[in-house]
Amino acid sequence: MKISSSYLMRQIAGEHIIVPTGEAAVEFNGLITVNEIGAFLWKKLQGEATEEELLQAVLEEYDTDEATARADIRAFLQKLEENGILRQ
Question: Labelling 85: which of 6, 29, 31, 64 has CA 20 to 30 A away?
């Protein structure tokens, strides 16, 4: 999985915002705000990453249990997929 090159993440007023560019800006009407872990996952998805690789990275970086991390990662990936931001 990898983030589409048509989307960027910017930090604006202390918030992490996903911003569409080019044609995506015409098709996607809005912005997505993500939390710290969402921003962490976004950075990992700038290159190719599997769900398992993301899980291991989150478990190494944050004090959380595997079940919570897995559920949060799946929800984040689903949101990206629903909005056409994630490429398989």
Answer: 64
